[in-house]
Amino acid sequence: MNSTPVLHVENVDLVREGNPILREVSLTVRAGEHWALLGANGAGKSTLLSLLGAFAHPTRGTVEVLGHRLGRVDMRELRSHVGHVDPKHAPRSPLTVWQVVLTGLTNTAEWVPRWGPTAEQVALAERLIGLLGLSDRRDARWPTLSQGERGRALIARALMPSPRLLLLDEPATGLDVAGREQFLERIDILQRTYPDLASVLVTHHLEELPPGTTHVMLLRDGCCLAAGPADEVLTSDQVSKCFDHPIRIVRADGRWSVRAGGPDRSRVG
Ligand SMILES: Nc1ncnc2c1ncn2[C@@H]1O[C@H](COP(=O)(O)OP(=O)(O)OP(=O)(O)O)[C@@H](O)[C@H]1O
């Protein structure tokens, strides 16, 4: 296994229009780790993800993505090796699921004219479509897909170049309960199928954390409040501080959820 961290962020500050957005943030992500960035609206999660995806440079500090230091590398080239699931991605023409997934190889929103995948690439696309639970929607066109199906198609698309890193920005936002559970089930299958894949997922809802989440960073006002193994970081105390609200964390069947803080009323009979 490659021992270079997949991501290494050291003492990063990011200032935009004179405002500090990230302050002294450090993070190391290794192969096989599944991180969640958790924090309230405006905490800086998406901004940090944009650094990890080589979409932005830090103002101070260093960011290494797949062993390459931002500022010393062709960002566009580097991005092609990162599986970045952009929820706003949308092809303009009504591509099928199969086509959308294959555009992950050309890194384009549209099907590239005169480009054709190899037999191995087609086989990989079919395998990923199956892994994401979309085999029966393989030929369905983008405009006819549900939001959950689109999200899962985009994950399959991001995995086409066989990246070592998958970045997911609020992947379960807007999904109904069934859609969220299907998404979590597929993430679980994915993590078991690709044990070396590392991922970083942004969310503000603990209910949306995949059970395979190994590590968590709590962000508040651009600062890292806590970072480390999920069970050490996701305590009622720390999450309450992160969201500036009394919260009680409940862990059941490998999943996390929250209740309003205060006494545990479930035992009052
Ligand atoms: N281009 C920009 N210029 C100035 N301020 C920005 C810019 N982009 C983001 N911000 C500010 O930086 C802060 C962090 O934004 P960011 O989107 O990273 O937070 P977030 O934790 O992802 O929030 P949310 O959960 O609402 O998506 C916010 O206060 C936002 O207004």
UniProtKB/TrEMBL annotation:
Transmembrane helix as UniProt keyword: no
Pfam family, one: ABC_tran
InterPro entries: AAA+_ATPase, ABC_transporter-like_ATP-bd, Metal_Ion_Import_ABC, P-loop_NTPase
Domain ABC transporter positions: 7-246
Keywords, alphabetical: ATP-binding, Nucleotide-binding, Transport
A GO molecular-function annotation: ATP hydrolysis activity
Record's protein name: Iron complex transport system ATP-binding protein
Organism: Actinokineospora iranica
